[in-house]
Design goal:
Bound molecules: adenosine-5'-diphosphate, magnesium ion
Helix content: 25-40%
Radius of gyration: 33 Å
Strand content: 15-25%
Low-confidence stretches: 1-17, 674-678, 731-738
Strand order of the largest sheet: 10-11-9-12-13-8-14
Structural class: alpha/beta
Length: 738
């Protein structure tokens, strides 16, 4: 205890005669003053849980509107930060305001009157207000009740704009001082005025008023950043940052506060991911897998191609993972055709080579079947380990047989859908699981797969996704996984010539396609995206198929494919196209995944401006897979700027990761990933890619703390993990015991 603190503490014994002194000023304190001093207790975070309705002016209706904006509690309100600020620091004099100019004036009301109008529902309140430079006519619309408030002699701060009818007021505040002290300040009219995200039912002014009422509660906010970290990075306290973000002294302070809060948010999220990963690492170990041996070596040598540099790196990283005790948790990210399956197969063979089993799970039957075919084709050089396909369509007899062989270990490789993780599926020794399109499986499904490991062991898991996302985003979306990206396309893949054209080119485009068809190639026609319903979408595809079959492509066979078709019909349609029995396939975006027809060399996408960039890129990936030069024709008539940027990007860029970055900057992270599906949180302050630098710093700090303390739960780190769990929950956590 310092001397000063000792002095403030209740004096005892020998000190009894000395009067207590104030901490900073050293002024002697008498009993009365001490009684009157404000009570400063410890922060009470529970106070932030109080509903918004505890504020003045927050009734049930507005509270509901607020909850639509994600603001239910006072704590939510503190984190509901302004998206902009109005600089109203300088007061204007009435005499200097010019027509069209905005400003805040401090004036006295001289007279007020309600002006009659003919329009129903319109009232105009006029007041003559004046300052030392002279009078002006202030005008309020539809607020007749203000007449009582604005009695002559009242001093008001009014913010608005001078136009021909007068000074149109958009915010005013009555000043209740005596006019003697400093210039009065208003919440809405002077200083740096925050503008919070609001809605039609909840005006920004209301939110500002609430934020002002609540801002004292910042003292009750948890400070989750360890003090050593704050000191090293020179970061303000959570309380100061929360206060300053709403009511900053100047614009720089607002920016610094926002950045501090974004850092906290990203830091807590990274902490949640790191701790989740660590829990998974230590909860269970994976079955040991031997070092790479003959089988995989010979298999690689037998492939009709060389692995790309990226693929080689991926297999090395997989080798590294399999050598460790914690189960592999790797995500292999690369667009369609980048050669993921080959890498996955490598991992599977490593397991088989060690006398274990491997499984590949895909989200749809079509994908599972395709993987199975690829697997059989690619495994010819591996002396064909025993493999089976297991989906919902597998006959009961075959299923029984497969399950029997899986349980005895006789069956080494299995490819399937969710059917693989059903209760009665037992593996003798599952060492490796591959999950394709991993974001389409939920936590529970992945946990069920984890539980298929032998005894207490969890299988090594390789996740795959064909949606390339920029690195910064993958750190948030997949921060608990190790990520390998396949950028290079395998040799032999040709760039797809891409044109964006208007209606005037339609006849020419069909002529071009007929030319390719006559040469023996095939074509896709992708129908416009109908977002309202799958049914309408299906109908559009069917209609377009008929139109083309009778018109432009009457000399060719035209097939149709859409999501509403029965599984068997879909398969038939795809098989016919793959076999070349149909030359044109009119489809909805269901072909985005799952079709591999190297002979298809042209794609038409209708109303391409309605598709997102990643989606266009995925669609386009269906052509250019064979030896023939390929083309993609995008029909679009658009003036919209974002669409123009998208279409320009798609026609000039073929790297999916680069396109994803463009997409990210155009649409923001939530749009790109489909937030919930990917377990990506909606950040309240941070945005990507803008805060990418902050994210990298936050991640670095988290990893540094893990290195230094071994665990983020270390007592030195204070309430860090409590705050992280409070904020981000455990929604993607894998259960420790299955
Ligand atoms: P993905 O799973 O990423 O869509 P695949 O592994 O299925 O990609 O590979 C796509 C196609 O490219 C397959 O026909 C595969 O045989 C072939 N392929 C894979 N790797 C290479 C390579 N390094 N060189 C040439 N062709 C390759
Ligand atoms: Mg594949």
């Amino acid at each position: 205890m310092s001397e000063a603190e000792a002095a403030v503490a209740a004096p005892t014994g020998a000190q009894e005669s000395a009067p207590p002194r104030a901490f900073a000023t050293g002024v002697a304190q008498d009993r009365e003053r001490l009684r009157a001093a404000p009570l400063r207790g410890r922060p009470r975070p529970t106070r932030l849980a109080a509903p918004i309705q505890t504020l003045r002016g927050a009734g049930p209706r507005l509270a509901e509107a607020a909850s639509e904006l994600g603001v239910a509690s006072l704590g939510d309100l503190l984190w509901h930060v302004p998206h902009g600020y109005r600089d109203r620091t300088a007061l204007s004099e009435i005499g200097e305001l010019r027509l069209g100019q905005e400003g805040t004036v401090l004036a006295e009301v001289r007279s007020v009157r309600l002006r009659p109008t003919r329009r129903r529902g319109l009232t105009i309140l006029e007041a003559t207000v004046a300052d030392a430079s002279g009078p002006t006519k202030a005008v309020w619309f539809n607020q007749p009740w203000l007449a009582e408030q604005l009695e002559p002699g009242t001093r008001v701060l009014v913010h608005g704009k001078l136009d021909r009818v007068g000074f149109k007021v958009d915010a005013h505040e009555v000043v209740r001082d005596d006019g003697q002290g400093d210039a009065p300040t208003g919440l809405h009219t002077t200083g740096i005025v925050p503008v919070h995200p609001a809605s039609g039912r909840l005006r920004p002014q209301k939110v500002r008023d609430w934020a002002w009422q609540a801002h004292g509660l910042v003292r009750d906010a948890i400070e989750p950043l360890p003090s050593s970290l704050r000191a090293r990075r020179g970061l303000a306290s959570a309380a100061d940052a929360l206060a300053a973000v709403h009511f900053p002294a100047d614009p720089d302070q607002a920016a610094a506060a926002r950045e501090r809060l974004a850092f906290e948010e990203l830091f807590l999220h990274q902490a949640a991911l790191a701790s989740r990963r660590r829990r998974h690492d230590v909860a269970r170990s994976a079955p040991p897998v031997d070092a790479p041996g003959e089988l995989t070596r010979e298999w690689i040598a037998s492939l009709p191609f060389e692995l790309t540099g990226d693929q080689r790196r991926a297999t090395e990283e997989i080798d590294g993972d399999l050598a460790g005790e914690p189960p592999m948790q790797r995500l292999l990210m690369g667009e369609v055709g980048s050669g993921k399956t080959v890498c996955a197969l490598y991992a599977m063979l490593r397991a088989v080579e060690s006398g274990c089993q491997a499984a590949l799970m895909a989200p749809t039957e079509t994908l599972a079947e395709q993987h199975f075919l690829t697997l059989e084709r690619l495994l010819v050089g591996a002396g064909l380990p025993s493999a089976a396909l297991l989906t919902g369509s597998t006959s009961a007899a075959r299923r029984r047989e497969a399950l029997g062989h899986l349980a005895t270990g006789q069956l080494e490789l299995v490819v399937g859908t969710h059917a693989l993780i059903e209760q009665d599926v037992e593996f003798a020794r599952l060492a490796l699981a591959v999950v394709d399109e991993q974001h389409r499986f939920g936590v529970r499904q992945r946990a069920a797969l984890d539980a298929k490991g032998p005894g207490d062991a969890a299988p090594h898991t390789l996740h795959m996704t064909a949606t390339p996302i920029p690195r910064t985003l993958s750190l948030t979306a997949y921060g608990d996984l190790d990520v390998t990206a396949l950028h290079e396309l395998p040799a032999g893949r040709r760039p797809v010539k891409t044109w964006v054209v208007g209606e005037e080119k339609r006849a020419g485009a069909y002529e071009f396609i007929r030319g390719r068809l006559r040469e023996g190639r095939q074509a896709f026609v992708v129908c416009p995206l109908v977002s309202e319903s799958d049914k309408l979408q299906a109908r559009a595809a069917t209609k377009e198929g008929e139109r083309l079959a009778e018109g432009e492509f009457r000399d060719f066979e035209v097939g149709v494919l859409h999501g509403q078709m029965k599984a068997a019909d879909k398969q038939r349609s795809m098989a016919r196209f793959a076999a070349g029995e149909t030359q044109v396939l009119v489809a909805t975006s269901v072909i985005e995944v799952g079709i591999d027809v190297p002979n298809a060399s042209v794609m038409v996408i209708e109303e391409a401006d309605r598709y997102g960039l990643s989606q266009l890129h995925q669609l386009r990936g269906r052509v250019g897979r064979g030896e023939h030069p390929s083309a993609c024709i995008l029909f679009a008539d658009t003036e919209a700027e974002a669409a123009t940027i998208r279409l320009e990007a798609i026609s000039s860029e073929r790297d999916g990761f680069k396109l994803a970055e463009v997409d990210l900057s155009l649409r923001g992270e939530g749009e790109i990933l489909g937030t919930r599906q990917h377990g990506l949180p909606r950040f309240r302050v941070a945005t990507l890619p803008e805060d990418a630098g902050t994210l990298l710093r936050a991640r670095e700090e988290v990893l540094g703390l893990v290195r230094r303390y071994g665990s983020l739960e270390a007592p030195e780190l204070g309430p860090l993990m409590d705050a992280a769990r409070l904020r981000f929950g455990d929604e993607r956590a894998e259960p420790i015991a299955a």
